[in-house]
Amino acid sequence: SEAATVYYTIDGSRPDWDSPKVTRDGVRGGAAPVEITEDRTKLQWFSVDEAGNVEGGYDPDGTSRKGLNQVTVKIG
Question: Mind listing the domains of the chain with CATH numbers?
Answer without folding.
Answer: 4-74 (2.60.40)
